Fold:
Amino acid sequence: MKLIIVSTLTLFTFALYGQSTSSHASEQQWNALKLYATDADQKEVINNKINELNLLKEQLHHSVIRELEEIETLSINLLQNFVIIEEHLREHFFEMDLHYLEYELQHPDHIMTKEEWVEFHTEKIKKYKISQINDELPLYYD
Structure:
């Protein structure tokens, strides 16, 4: 009789131990699955932020180009519109907190043509503004 009771208790103890280890293993698997899902969600959020940042950069780059379209349009008739173009260039340089020196002051000998002058300064404005966007945007967008 004692042998039956001892063997029943032993079997019952091993059964409880087996359930305990299997539930512990299940809990570990569940935690690993939750961690994987959380990592996947975080990666998706990061990828979405990167895509959103790239889209915003692209839109801002296009806005810089559109901003300078008026100068390009005025450049069609450069002789007539050069004074207006220089005023636009001066305004853009002022906005960027850069010094602008007029064409006649810098090239009284006309070594550089007015077309080259406008193209050079338009590209300078474009590059400066795009570099500002690329440098500053990540600071505001984490």
